What we know:
- The protein is 70% helix and 0% strand.
- The protein is mainly α.
- It has a domain at 36-150.
- Helix 2 packs across helix 4.
- The longest helix has 63 residues, at 89-151.
- It is elongated and about 150 Å long.
Amino acid sequence: MADATPADPHPGDVRSMKRHEDLSAPRAVRRIGVQYDADVFGNFSESIANFLGTARFLVWQSGVITLWILHNAFAPERYQFDPWDRGLVLLTLVLSIQASYAAPLILLAQSRQERRDRVTAENDREVAERTQADTEFLAREIASVRVSLSDMLTGEDVTSRLDGLTDTIEQLTRQVERLHVADGPESEPSPEPA
Length: 194
């Protein structure tokens, strides 16, 4: 009797098996199409968005559209490239194309600006936290220095305490002299003969 184990569908094809099981390295991404640098394209889109958002662009665009309409409305028929009676189809197409490219470029520029703002806000928050921590540390240090200084004697304190001690010594000296005078010379012990 033969073994009841299922047959390997691809005997000897260990390489394809390892490729699917090896998760230590990512698969190479196959890209079809044009390769581009995201930063260069982002900077380009920001410059376009900045230009589209200016009054100069609106004035130029309004002037071009006005000349386009006037030319195609009043020029002889053989010089019209977008006749008025057909509804200025070419002008509509040009403005639609401009809008279809302008909107994504503006959105891309806004998202890049939001990312920069987010990074700036994060940096500002970290700087503010460090500044607050440093300020609190300095406040604690100043408080400890004040406490240490309040325990120290100053020259004025030493002088006033010495003055107080001098006064006390002078008072005691006067009291001893009064007692000595009150007892008289007879209370003095007589010197012993040799």
